[in-house]
Fold this sequence. Notes:
The chain is elongated. By secondary structure, the chain is an alpha/beta fold. Helix 1 runs antiparallel to helix 2 and helix 4 runs antiparallel to helix 5. The longest helix has about 30 residues. The protein has a five-stranded mixed sheet with strand order 1-5-4-3-2, with helices on one face. It is about 60% helix and about 15% strand. A hairpin with a 2-residue loop joins strand 4 and strand 5. It folds into two domains: about 210 residues, Up-down Bundle (Alpha-lytic protease prodomain-like), CATH 1.20.1510; about 80 residues, Alpha-Beta Plaits (2-Layer Sandwich), CATH 3.30.70. The two termini are about 40 Å apart.
Amino acid sequence: MTDDTQERPLTDIVHDTLPHAHVFHTENILAERSTRRVVALTAVMMIVEILGGWWFNSMALLGDGLHMSSHAVALGLSAFAYAAARHLSRDPRFSFGTWKIEVLGGYTSALLLLGVAGLMVYESIARIAHPVPIQFDQAIPIAVVGLVVNLVSAWMLKDAHGDHAHHGHHHHEHHHDLNLRSAYIHVIADAATSVLAIVALLSGKLFGLAWMDPVMGIVGAIVIAVWSYSLIRDTGKVLLDADMDNPVVEEIREVIRNAPFRAELYDLHVWRVGKGKFACIVGIAADGSVEASEVRKALQVHEELVHITVETAVRNRSRVFGNT
C-alpha cells in the first residue's frame, strides 16, 4: 500500500455546538404595506387604460395599459414575496432563510414583462399596417391620469425605501431592498411609457401625426424589454450565487492578506443570503497553527458577513470549523 498522505491530507471535522439561527433578512413592514397599496392603485388604473385604449383606438394608451398590467402582476409578486418570506422564515427546509423568495418574484415578473413587450410590438405593427382613427380628446385625459397614478405610486414606494434605509447601516449598494427596488423601478418605467403615450396622442391631435401612436407603442416595448433584461440579469445573478465579483470578496481577501496570523487563502466561496448580507466559506493555510476563531474575528469587521465558515490547514492536516 502506498503512502499518499502528502497528496490527500487527513481532515478533522469539528462542529460548533452552539445553536444559531439562519434567518438573515429583516422584515420591511412599511415596504410591504406600501407595495400592497400600489398594487391596488395600479390595478385600477390598468383596467381604465386598457379599456380606454381599446375603446378610443389608441395603441400608445393600450400599450401603456398593458405595460401597467405587467407592473400590477410584478408588484403583486413583490407583495406576495414579502408575505411568503415572512411566513416561512422559520421553516427549517430553507437552509439560509427565505430572502430569495423575493428575488424569485422579481425574476418571474421580468419573464412576464418580456411577453408583454412582444405583445405590444405585435399590436403596434398591426396598427401601422392597418391604421384606425383615434379619439384623441378622450384618450389624452386617461393617459394623464395614468401618469399621475404612476408618480403617486413611485412616491409611496420611495418613501417606504427611505424609511427602511434609515434603520440600517449601508456599506455597499447591495444593502438596498432588492424586492422594493424592483417594484420602484416598475412604476418608474411605467411612468416613462405614460409620458410616451401622452407625447404620441398630443402629436396626433395637434400635428396630425397619427403614426406616432403605434411608434410610441414600439418604443414603450423596447423600454420594457431593456428593463426586463436588466432585472433578469440582476435577479438571476443572486439566484445562481454568482457574487464572486462583489466588492465584499476583495475585502475578504484583503483581510486575510493583512491579518497578523500570516495565512494564505486557498479557497473562498461567497453568496448572498439576504439584503446586503453574505455567507462565506474561507479556507486558509499557514505554517503554524491558526484558530478559526481568529479568522472569524478578523472578518467580522465587515458586518455584511453574517454566516462564516472557516477551514484552517497546517501542512498535511486540516481542521474545519463552522460558525455564524
